[in-house]
Fold these 2 entries.
Entry 1:
Amino acid sequence: MAVWTRDYLAPIFHRLTALPEFFGDDPAARQDLGPLTPVPECLGSIYEVNRAIEDLVARTMQLTCRGDKYRHGQLLGQAISPELFITQASLTQVVEQFRLDLARFRRQFLERQNAYSAESEAWYACCELRTEFCRIWAAVSLKLDETSWDQYIGRFRSMVSLAKHLAQAMNQRHERVPGPELRFEIGYLAIAHIVVMRCRDLSTRLEALRLVKTYGAARESFWESDKMYQFGRRVIEVEHDLKLDEADQPLGSVSWASLPPEERRVIDSYFDKDRIIHAQVAGASVTGRPLSLIMRDDNRTVYLRDEFIFLDAYFIYPDHGEWARDTFSYSQAVRVGDRIECSGQGGWDPKLRGVTIPDDIDDEISQAFENVDLALRSAGGTGWSQVFRVNSYHANLTPEILSKMGEQFRKWMPEHKPIWVALPVERLGVPEMRIEIQVVAYSP
């Protein structure tokens, strides 16, 4: 345990010294990291590699934040301090030295120790990604123009390819399961998100966005995959002036080779984590948080563009869904990764506040199926075509009712047959109700 703590945990805590630059509001909490730690002349252990790269990552993050003050912060319009350029030159030199030493370490140390394995290769790929992150960010940390990132599109493509390989390797070793997942080390998730934000080549950033959505842990260090995905997707739409479909592909024709002009590029963002608002999107009432994008207009004047992103996984549909939320404090559907689960849906009229049930049982069953479809679509699904499990609850379960359920299954799911449990119950939530349907759907 002591060796593991030294090799992996201690370097991570060193990285935390730079986090106030990103997440802290108190300038007094921000500290200088002191003199740049020289990379050992010969990297001889995993600890030395991890310690050196975490120091470089922390300093690159800090230098980038210092540059932000001149790009859009309180020093906007002022000349950049010469001392920062000296720091940048020194950092760039040390990063390049570390990159060469890292390759030498892999050849000599791992071969000498006969330490090649899937685990060691994944660790080395992670080191490569973070090193490339430092190389690019150190180079552009004091640039004032967002087009400065464009000269690194080739490197961004290589990073995405490496991140994809790493993601597949990590998920083969640790089979992903639904629910919360935490990785405290910086792996491919944060790097993929950075590519989404700074690489303006559309095909490359869409591939990086797919990595965030498909392979991202629920939380990696201080970054959460669902927030990173929603945020990155919206920035892509804003910068390229397009809309993405459910598969994150552009709707309509686009110019894949064109890069967005400077005035459409997002410099930075402000996210109010404590403010929650309700909005109507595509006819559904959704919950989310406001996002302010820092951009420049044609005259290079910095301004804030207000946006809305879905950070809450709970969804309701209008009218009845809003009434149920306000009255009983529950939602109609929840999305967890690629799964959508819906609350029990009865045969009520969804356009009315309250519970109004048809007299005819056939009409009630038909409407319950309609309401399930509505709930799934409110959460971004495509409806019954994605349902793989059905639970139905019946106040009067008869052969005729089962036959009617089968008819609805064939109507709504002609291409597949889900698993199904039908349970008789003494009564449902409202005395007039005779059926309630709950489903789970797979919606990638």
Entry 2:
Amino acid sequence: MTLASVDFKTEFAVDMTCQNCVNAVSGALRDVPGVERYDIDLESKRVTITGKTPPSHLLTALKSTNRQVIVRGTSSASLNTPTQAAVSILESPLPLPASIASTSNPILAGVENPISSSGLSDRALPGMNEEEHSQKVFGICRFVQIAPKIVLMDLTVRLPPPARVGLGTADKARYNVYVSSTGNLVDPPITTGKPFVKLGEIEPDKEGYGDMFKEVDGELWEWIGRGCIVEAASSVSMPPNARASTRTSTIGRIFAGVVARSAGAWGNDKTVCACSGRTMWEEGRDMEKKF
């Protein structure tokens, strides 16, 4: 597991009801690498963790207690660094048919009988209630400014198998990850422009599942409103005229989401949905019943 070089704080809402719940959460976090400190508030059902561990790994550890867990916010542990955090939900700019969009989650793949579908697993994206989104969700990337010139990124993707999107018969394919220059993402990748910030490269496994946790030089406020792009390396290397030859040439090869500002630690006290009047726990349970 890759750890950050600087401590940061992540706040979770955990549906705890008694001291046994507190003990279970404490036990789940006790041996997680990179955790420097954790504070558990039973009354407010809040768990705040300070350390260098990726939020996605912390979420997995907390969910191992079989309790509802919701990410509430992330921020630097230093009081001298202004709170800046963002999130990007990665979708396909063009609709993908189920025959192509098959992911490691049988529900998103449109599989009626997940047990009989070979090669698929039920690994969910960390912290994602996927039924809330009208399109299939192929990844989530969280960003937090942990130092004046350092942005921490925590990316998890679950992409279509390479062979289904024309990336060859190999089990793996390489994808470039970057924050785009401003542009229209409806007809990618021609109109995204050159990368504004290159974030790195990711190579998902044969099921399309992969993650990347790293520090990037930059200031997060400059990325807000731009696109976070995950694009097949072979698509990037295509000549411009080849990419422009057909509007569908990038189906299943590029995934994008707006980098949207999100709450920092202690920056989100909302517990009731203003639209439905239901609590966050009720909303979460309703989503879980759909799976």
